[in-house]
């Protein structure tokens, strides 16, 4: 297993500058269940289940995920089988493999990515004008 320098762990490609990594599921790790978190989490291992966050999920190049994912932003370099609902942004970077449906206001697919599924893009204007709502600033229901 390759050792990572601290700078490699905390620098999240494609995420906002200054964002720190809160947790890492490294290569060779396997997890099954429900993952909920705040901040930024990177997965480089195998994950099966459900992922829910309002923040950033980074899927590393060696990752294999079979999950239903609800997030703020997701940056994918690995493999996902399952549906994604992202409030802000979905980035699929080469050599990503995505099998499932994607619902997001903004989708970026890099050349060389394999994407098998459907895309639903609503709220593009809203996503470009306002930052994603967090639980602290979510307006109360009417």
Description:
With 142 residues, the chain is mainly beta. It has a domain at 17-112. 8% of the residues lie in helices and 47% in strands. The protein is built from 2 helices and 13 strands. The chain has helices at 6-10, 124-129, and strands at residues 21-25, 30-37, 40-43, 46-53, 56-59, 64-76, 79-81, 84-92, 97-99, 102-103, 107-109, 114-116, 119-120. Strands 1, 2, 3, 4, 5, 6, 7, 8, 9, 10, 11, 12 and 13 form a 13-stranded parallel sheet that branches. The N and C termini lie far apart (52 Å). The relative contact order is 0.13. Residues 1-18 have low confidence and may be disordered.
Give a brief outline of the structure:
By secondary structure, the chain is mainly beta. It has helices at 6-10, 124-129; strands at residues 21-25, 30-37, 40-43, 46-53, 56-59, 64-76, 79-81, 84-92, 97-99, 102-103, 107-109, 114-116, 119-120.
Tell me, briefly, the overall form: globular
Span of the ends, CA to CA? 52 Å
The quaternary state of the protein chains shown equals single chain
Hey, roughly how much beta strand do the residues contain?
Answer: over 45%
The residue fraction in helices comes out at: under 10%
Secondary structural class:
mainly beta
């Amino acid at each position: 297993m390759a050792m990572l320098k601290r700078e490699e762990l905390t620098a999240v490609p494609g995420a906002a500058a200054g964002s720190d990594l809160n947790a890492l599921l490294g290569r060779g790790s396997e997890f099954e269940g429900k993952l909920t978190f705040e901040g930024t989490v990177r997965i480089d291992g195998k994950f099966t289940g459900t992922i829910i966050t309002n923040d950033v999920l980074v899927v590393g190049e060696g990752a294999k995920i079979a999950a239903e994912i609800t997030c703020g932003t997701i940056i994918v370099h690995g493999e996902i089988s399952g549906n994604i609902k992202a409030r802000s942004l979905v980035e699929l970077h080469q050599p990503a493999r995505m099998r499932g449906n994607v619902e997001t206001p903004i989708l970026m697919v890099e050349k060389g990515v394999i994407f098998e599924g459907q895309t639903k893009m609503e709220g593009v204007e809203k996503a470009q004008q306002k930052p994603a709502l967090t639980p602290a600033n979510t307006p109360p229901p009417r």
